[in-house]
Design goal:
globular
C-alpha cells in the first residue's frame, strides 16, 4: 500500500488535493496575519501549524457563516466527533488527516481542540458580554487555547512559555475585537463589556447604532490599554531559552501590535472602517522579526 498522501477528491471539478494542500489553500485564502508567521518555519512545523490553523478556520467559519443555530450546532458536533476520530487514529476530514502525524510529536490534545469548539458555540448564542471576566473566557477558548497549541508546535522547554502563549492569544483576540467593532455591530454582535461601556457613559445600543464621539474614543483607548497590558504580560512570561523557537508567535505579535498602534493613531475610527495592514507590510514585519529578534 502506498505511503503517499491520499488525494482529497473534488466533487465539483477542481483538481484533487492532498490534506496538506487543502490546509495550505485554506490558510493562504484567509489572508490572516497568522499565515505570514508560518512562512519562516521549518517544513514539518509549518505543515503542523498550517493544519491547526485550517482546523480553526473550519470551525470559525461555521460560527460566522451558518445562520441557522441548529444547523451550526450540528456541524460543530460533527467536528467534536471528528476530533475524537483524530485521536482514535481514523480521521476522515482533510484537516484532521493533515494533523494526524503531529498530535503525538507536538503534544496536541483533544481537550484543547474541543475548547476551541466551545468558544465557537458561545458565538452562536452569546452576542453580548456583561463584564471582562465573561469576555476573557471567550478569548481564552477562541484564542488563548490556540496560542498554547501553537506554542507546542513551535517548541518549548519552560512551562511558563505556555502562559506566554495564552496571554498572547488573548491579546490578539482583544486586538481583533477593537479592529472589528463596527463590523461586529452590523452583525448584532458587541464584544465590548457592558460595564466598560457604562463606565464611559455608553450603552450597547450606542455601539449597535455606531455612534462615535469623545466618550467612545476614550472607552476604546481603555480597551487598547487592556490589550497592550496582555501583550506585556505575555512577553514577561516568555522564557529566554524558548524565545528562538517562539519567533513565529513573536512575528504575529509584531504584526498585531503594529495594527493596534495604527488603530490608536487613527483615533479608533473603527465604527465605520476596518483598519488593515497590506500583505507587503505584513511580510516585511515578519521578515524583520524573524531575522532580527
Amino acid at each position: 500500500r502506498s505511503s503517499r498522501p491520499r488525494k482529497v477528491v473534488s466533487a465539483i471539478g477542481f483538481p484533487p488535493m492532498t490534506p496538506d494542500e487543502y490546509c495550505q489553500q485554506k490558510a493562504a485564502k484567509s489572508g490572516s496575519s497568522f499565515y505570514y508567521s508560518f512562512l519562516f518555519l521549518p517544513p514539518e512545523r509549518r505543515r503542523a501549524i498550517t493544519a491547526l490553523y485550517a482546523y480553526c478556520r473550519e470551525v470559525d467559519d461555521i460560527a460566522d457563516e451558518v445562520k441557522d443555530v441548529g444547523v451550526a450546532r450540528t456541524k460543530l458536533a460533527w467536528w467534536r466527533t471528528e476530533v475524537a476520530n483524530l485521536f482514535a487514529g481514523h480521521p476522515q476530514h482533510p484537516v484532521t488527516r493533515a494533523l494526524a502525524p503531529f498530535t503525538a510529536t507536538y503534544g496536541l490534545d483533544a481537550h484543547r481542540m474541543n475548547e476551541i469548539i466551545d468558544g465557537m458555540e458561545m458565538d452562536l448564542v452569546q452576542h453580548r458580554y456583561g463584564d471582562f471576566e465573561a469576555l476573557k473566557l471567550y478569548c481564552h477558548r477562541v484564542a488563548g487555547v490556540v496560542g498554547q497549541l501553537s506554542a507546542s508546535i513551535f517548541g518549548f522547554s519552560n512551562p511558563s512559555t505556555l502562559e506566554y502563549a495564552e496571554n498572547l492569544g488573548i491579546a490578539f483576540q482583544l486586538t481583533n475585537i477593537i479592529r472589528d467593532v463596527g463590523e461586529d455591530a452590523r452583525r448584532d454582535r458587541v464584544y465590548l463589556p457592558a460595564d466598560d461601556l457604562a463606565r464611559f457613559g455608553l450603552t450597547v445600543e450606542d455601539i449597535l447604532a455606531r455612534r462615535g464621539g469623545e466618550s467612545f474614543v476614550k472607552m476604546m483607548e481603555f480597551q487598547g490599554d487592556r490589550a497592550r497590558a496582555y501583550y506585556g504580560v505575555a512577553f514577561s512570561k516568555l522564557a529566554p531559552e524558548d524565545r528562538r523557537n517562539q519567533r513565529a508567535g513573536l512575528i504575529m505579535a509584531a504584526i498585531y501590535g503594529t495594527l493596534l498602534e495604527e488603530i490608536r493613531r487613527d483615533h479608533f475610527q473603527v465604527l465605520e472602517q476596518r483598519v488593515t495592514l497590506t500583505p507587503l507590510r505584513k511580510l516585511w514585519i515578519a521578515w524583520k522579526t524573524w531575522v532580527f529578534d
